[in-house]
């Protein structure tokens, strides 16, 4: 009885000891300080985009009481802007910020996690990512690249772009040389537009000199800062090609696993907070800039003609089907995206869109 009691005590003692050791180890990991690097696909001082990333790093530092310190680098400061994905994937740095559709060449399905033409707006994207199966799929797709993605930022619906000549019908698009990247470029090429890829810093000069005839960039705020209204007179809406581009925070999976759970929670919540902040900032800044463009610069603000929009819509479906035929992952994400967005459109028709029509 005594012996059994002793063994029992010993057993419990061992368990307790094991438990204590485990607790000590966890406590050490829990106290460990982390100094991480975050690289971005954005130029230094790129408003809203870089502001949001800097806010995120500050939020994490404050919430973790300095336990997770994130040093932010603009594109080109540590690695070239468009090597953000590779640098984080390979673990050269722990974190990155960019837009998933930049990596379409490596992962075609990534485009759905930013924006596709005639796809979901910011509200739809957030619903799909957070409350639907979007983020789960995104994690699945990025797992093979050793990345954990989190939504962080959204520009809201962009503008259709600046044109040097008015577009009165589909025929006016023929031969137009336009700066428009990604799937939007592939779609509009089918109408006879010659899509050109140009970084932000080169758009104004190209448009002003007539090297290109049209250019899309972001929205009123960023376009005004580039001075595009001085290079082309006709400003078209809506941004059919980028209806609500989501931006991404990417984290190397090994680095992520090394974080104690409370720091993971801080990163997730700081990313979500700045996802909201960036969308709000874009909206507020665009409201102001559109007013300046109209009142001070007297731009011609025009809606794309109906035949242009209808044709682009048809060509988008054709382009997405062509891409789907080439890549199984693209097919899978496309199907999930469509399933969500079809119902989202139906709901929007009687909620946001219906309300927008009567909003004054
Ligand atoms: Ca754009």
What does this structure look like?
Helices cover 52% and strands 14% of the residues. The protein is built from 13 helices and 11 strands. It has a domain at 27-155 and 244-283: 3-Layer(aba) Sandwich (D-Maltodextrin-Binding Protein, domain 2), CATH 3.40.190.170. The strands form 2 sheets. A 6-stranded mixed β-sheet has the order 7-6-8-5-9-11, with helices on one face. β1, α2 and β2 form a beta-alpha-beta unit. With 360 residues, it is of the alpha/beta class. The radius of gyration is 24 Å and the shape is globular. The longest helix is centred in the last third of the chain and has 35 residues, at 261-295. The model is unreliable at 5-22 (pLDDT under 50). The protein binds calcium ion. Residues 158, 216-218, 242 line the site of calcium ion.
Strand fraction band? Answer: 5-15%
The main sheet orders its strands as 7-6-8-5-9-11
Q: Please report the distance between the alpha carbons of the first and last residues.
A: 85 Å
- Biggest β-sheet strands, sense, barrel: 6 strands, mixed
CATH superfamily heading of the domain at 27-155 and 244-283:
Bacterial extracellular solute-binding protein, family 7
CATH top-level class of the domain at 27-155 and 244-283: Alpha Beta
As a percent range, the share of helical residues equals 40-55%
